[in-house]
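Reminder: ligand-aware prediction takes two inputs, not one.
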Amino acid sequence: ELRGRAHWSSDSEDSDSSGSECLYRVVLLGDHGVGKSSLASIFAGVGEKDASDHLGEDTYERTLTVDGEETTLIVMDTWETEKQEEDEKWVQDYCMQVGNAYVIVYSITDRSSFESASELRIQLRRIRQAENIPIILVGNKSDLVRCREVAVEEGRACAVVFDCKFIETSASLHHNVHELFEGIVRQIRLRRDSKET
Ligand code: GDP
Ligand code: MG
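Here is what comes back for the chain with magnesium ion:
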């Protein structure tokens, strides 16, 4: 569903670009251990020479060229914190408020994480009721075929019910990860363009 190729470049590379108005916050949601930080670090280009700008802990900025147009995403991997539970609640409320787009991640090897994903989707809908924000449901760890607990069809069906996009990824194999972030950019643009007309 999320097709096409994009050119990835760092934000600092082309200082003459005028795409600064195209800046969007993408928040990663999901249970502990499903692969959020792994996906974020691939987005951030850890280990690549044109890596992203690291905006403090667990937040990464990178400009993607998708379909010939630049868009800057700020990816926030802040959903889980190491701190006290009260602090965590505050951070989670904040996460629910600030995203321009959401990636809800579960592991295909962990059914309870799939159920949590549904709960997160419901929570998000309640909090951001009037807004038509892009949401992508992600079934990660697709490489672990023998441990699969959630069928592709279940993920797809869930996305239909919850009116969001769906993709399976493998952070370990880097499979579909760039496609995921390109998909977010396209979803953001679809909504932006429909607002303009
Ligand atoms: P988080 O708690 O959601 O941030 O999850 P992490 O990114 O820390 O990943 C939790 C564990 O799952 C780590 O040991 C990762 O190496 C592993 N992991 C993450 N993504 C994948 C994947 O696509 N395939 C496999 N096999 N393991 C993964
Ligand atoms: Mg993490």
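Confidence is low (pLDDT under 50) at residues 1-5, 10-20. Residues 36-37, 77, 80 surround magnesium ion (ligand 2) (CB under 6 Å). We will return to this case in the review session.
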